[in-house]
Amino acid sequence: AGVLIGGVLLLYDRAALASPSVAYRGGVTVALAVSFLLLWVNVAVGIVGSEDNPVNLSFFMLVLIAAIGAFSADFRPAGMARAMLGTAGVQMLLALIIGTAPSTQHDPAGVVGLAILSAFFATLWLTSAALFRHAAKTGEVRAD
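Predicted structure:
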């Protein structure tokens, strides 16, 4: 838990130094918060079934997708907006794929619980994308 919380705080501190834009910092904050929540829920109780369910490994990939997108965009606001938008799309696609699997039908939360939780996380990814898009439109780029 300490490594996860410390890592998030370290990444936020680095991002706060990278840009003077409040929108950019907000986008980073929301992206880090949704990544933290996604990992925390997945490790603590599991999103599909118990935390031991191998299907839950796919949700770790969402954080990896966001990180790869951020690195690919060189942390520039317009690219970060596209990366977060793509991550939201993958979040909902993953929910659709897992929700239609026969093993999910026996999950206590069921398909509806998975859809609600995935929609919540996708909304956070989209919020981050909107903040990054706003930062890109205002023209405040990160300091190199």
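Summary: Residues 65 and 87 are 6 Å apart (CA to CA).
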